[in-house]
Design a protein that fits this description.
This protein is an alpha/beta fold. Helices cover about 40% and strands about 15% of the residues.
């Protein structure tokens, strides 16, 4: 397989893409190289997307500390106890006072020298400016899968992309993951990377981009990694092969017969 035909000259990296590559390079190729739909259906993300949308809607209309507003919005769009609990868990973490706020923000940052060059993009759920802090939040509705944020490649990309925005405003960047499901337990400690941390992240991202460009994109081939993989049924290296769950045409359907038959 020719890497030059798979990867663009300017590689775009995202928190999800680098996390996927760290998990399995074959999974990265199928999802972010070829853009294939998942062959093995996993857990639905509908509830998580709904919680994200409701939190944005609530904050744009007012405050999550306004119980009447929260009840109105949730009743109109979900009326689900699990959703209410997630929003309430966020409320306990949300700043009561702030100077500015923004929601569902996507930003990009370009790295040119030293090579390799790459374009990093990241999307976060909310930013609050308060107490001299550029407070970047990422809502998580699943299980907790990270310890220290400084060691998580997703957080590294997010911090690297949003750091110039904080610096331009003379604010201290703080990144926080909010785990809204009660089963997830406590949040990781918020992370405020300093100049040395950001320089280190730059080098880490450069090394990771180099690894991607030099990869042979082989699968891991271990049950622990392959079992939850959404491409396990079409990966030749899968340790847990199965049958793809893609929708299939019923070839014996008379409506699909060639014209003239």
């Amino acid at each position: 397989m020719s890497r030059t035909r798979v990867l663009p000259e300017l590689l775009r990296i995202t928190p999800t893409a680098l996390d996927t590559f760290a998990w399995c390079s074959r999974r990265y190729l199928l999802k972010h190289g070829f853009g294939l739909p998942e062959s093995d259906a996993g857990r639905s993300s509908d509830q998580g997307l709904l919680v994200h949308d409701l939190l944005r809607h609530i904050h744009e209309r007012g405050s999550c500390h306004d119980a009447a507003l929260v009840d109105e919005v949730v009743t109109a769009h979900a009326d689900d106890d699990a959703v209410r609990l997630m929003i309430d868990r966020h409320r306990t973490r949300c700043p009561m006072t702030f100077d500015a706020q923004a929601h569902e923000i996507a930003r990009a940052r370009y790295h040119h020298r030293p090579v390799p060059m790459f374009l990093a993009t990241a999307r976060i759920d909310a930013v609050w400016v308060h107490d001299g802090i550029f407070d970047v939040r990422d809502y998580k509705t699943g299980s907790r899968a990270v310890g220290d944020l400084r060691d998580d490649v997703r957080a590294q990309v997010q911090a690297w992309v949003f750091a110039p925005r904080a610096q331009a405003r003379g604010l201290r960047l703080q990144l926080r993951y909010e785990y809204l499901s009660p089963e997830a337990g406590d949040d990781p400690e918020p992370w405020s990377p300093d100049t040395d941390d950001l320089d280190d992240i730059t080098e880490r991202l450069r090394r990771r981009v180099t690894q991607i460009r030099e990869s042979d994109f082989r699968g891991v081939g271990e049950p622990e990694t392959c079992t939850p993989c959404p491409y396990r049924s079409i990966c030749p290296d899968s340790a847990t092969p199965g049958v793809p769950t893609w929708p299939a045409l019923a070839l014996d359907d008379p409506d699909l017969a060639p014209a003239g038959d």
